[in-house]
Design goal:
alpha/beta; Rossmann fold; 7-stranded mixed beta sheet; 7 strands; LmbE-like_dom_sf; hydrolase activity, acting on carbon-nitrogen (but not peptide) bonds, in linear amides
Amino acid sequence: MNVLAICAHPDDAEICCGGTLAKFARRGDQVAIAVVTNGEVGSPTLPTGEIARIRQAEAQAAADIIGAELIWMGFRDEFLFDTEQTRLAFIDAMRRVRADLVLTHWPGDLYNPDHTITGQIANDVAIMTTVPNIKTAHSPSARIPIVYFFESMAGLGFLPEEYVDITETFQVKRSMLEKHESQVGDWLKDQYGSNALDMIDVISRFRGIQCGVRYAEGFIRAKAYPRNITGSLLP
């Protein structure tokens, strides 16, 4: 199966669904991580160009841990809008990897507008990936990908409908997030006084308690005609 995580910022995939991505990769699925914005505002001290380069390198290092393809989309951090250009870029990312399954932000995640818009666009354009008259660099997909929304930041307002047991891949999730040194050790503490490594431990443990395992990640499937399914595509 071809799995694509479309995330607003570098480190979002690791925080929100890193254990699940590692589990997909471990069983032999093809995994790609599309980072929509370049993370250029994510430093209290470094200029935009420099921190964007650092964050791309960190995202690549994290993706390399599970052998995932990194797709760097390069939109401006904090200024993501639903435009024709943005929609075409999302469609092309899905076509590029021939995505069977897309993991993305829950549109109800009000932590950041980039999160909200990323999840909304990803879900909106999934049905467009098979349409021949919508032209992008890659040819139309053979099937419409199934979309799953992953955990909101800090789990606020998010009630999972499906869970993935990530007990065996939780340390991989941590290792991936640790590659984002500029965020874990600097930006998030400076701006919010928080530690992302502590947060993923608490949230993953809490979701695990909910479904009877040590660590878990929660998801909600986008249920829409004509791309609804029986069962689950999660590992």
